[in-house]
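Subject: for your reference before the review

Hello V.,

The reviewers asked for a structural picture of the protein, and I figured it would be easier to keep everything in one thread rather than splitting it across files. Below is the amino acid sequence we used in the manuscript, unchanged from the supplementary table.
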Amino acid sequence: MSLKTNTLAHARNRQLQNTLNDLIQQARENEKKQALYETLGFEIIGAGSPEALLELVLTKTTARCQLNEVVLCLIDHHKDIKRLFFNHDDEVRTLYENRLAVLDNVKDTGFIDSLIRKPLLGTEALKKYRWMIADIKTRSLFKSAAYLPLMRGNRIIGALLLLSHNSNRFPQDAGTLFLQKLSIMAAVAIENCLNQQRIKEISYQDVLTGVYNRRYFDLRFKDEIARSLRWRDDLVCMFLDVDYFKKINDTYGHQTGDQVLTCIANLIKSQVRACDIVARYGGEEFVAALPATSLQHAHEIAERLRQTVQSTVHYFQDKPFYVTISIGMANFKSLDMLKLQDRPNSEEIAAALLDKADKALYQAKANGRNQIVVHTSDINNP
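And here is what came back from the structure prediction:
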C-alpha cells in the first residue's frame, strides 16, 4: 500500500472518528437536555400553588434553560385566570403580569385563532407572536423564540413563548421533542392547578349569597394586615348587619329572608373593589375588609352602600317592602397596639380590629339602626 493511500485512509479514519466524537457529544448533550426538561416538567406538575407554578414556568424555566424570558399565554374561558393566579396579591401581580397574557374567549378571538397546534421556532415564531410580548419593555432585544402550544386532548388552552437574545437559539430545523414534552407537562400542571383553585374557591364561598365565608375571610384578613404592616398602608374593617332581620323572616318567611340576604351581598360587592374582601360572617351579618383605603374613603363607600340598600325595593307576593343596614367601622392605623408593640402580631391585630368594628356596629344598632358608626375610644364594651 502506497504512502499516499495510507495518508488518505488515515485522513478518512480521523474524519470518521471526529464525526463519531461529535455524535457522541451531541447524544450526551441531548441526554442532559432531556434530563433537564423532564426534571423541570415534573417540578411544574408538582407545583403546590398557583404562585409556585408561575415561579417555575416563568422564572426557573428562564434560568435553567438559559433563556432571556418566558411568556405564558392562556385562554380565559371562565373569566377567572388572573384572580386564581394572583389571588388578590399585588406583589405577585406586579412580578408576573407582563409575562402572563390572558385572552378573553370572546373579545380576543383574533389572537386565539392565531394559536397554532404545532411548535414554531426561530424568527418566524417571534414575528407571528410578537403581540404576546407587547407589555415587556425589553421586547426589542429578543431575536429568536420557540412557540409551544399547550394542548389538553384536542383542545388548545394557551401557549408558552420561550425568548432569547441569541438569533441562533431556536433554529427552525431543530428538534422539538424535549420542548414538546415540557409543554405537555406544563399544560397538565396549569389545568390541574386552575381547577384545584376553583374547587378551593367553592369551599370558601357562602352557599346562599355567593360571597366568601367566614373561614376564608379570617385567612385573607390576616394576610392583608401583614401586607398593611409591610407597606404601612391603612386598612378598614366593616361589620354590616341587616336591621330587624328576624322580623323580615317572621313576616315574609325564610325564603324571602334568603332573597334579601343575597340581594344585600350583591349590593355590597357592587360598591367595593375587586381587591376588597366581602364575606358573610354569620346569619344576617356581613364583614368587609378594604385594604389600602383611608377611613374617609371607606366611610364614603359605606354611606353610598347604606343609601343604596335603603332605596332598594323588595317584594313579597307583589307587595313592596324595604330594608336597611347598620354599619360599624374601624381602621388599622387607629389601633393603639401598633404604637405600643415593636413587632405587632397579625393575628392579634385582626382580632382587635374585628372587635372594634363589632363594637361600632353594636353602637350603630343601639343608636337606632340604619346608620354608620366609626369606632372611637369612647365606645365601651357592651
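For the response letter, the relevant points are probably these. The domain at 212-374 is CATH 3.30.70.270 (Alpha-Beta Plaits). The first strand starts at residue 69 and ends at 76.

Happy to draft the paragraph if you're swamped.

O.
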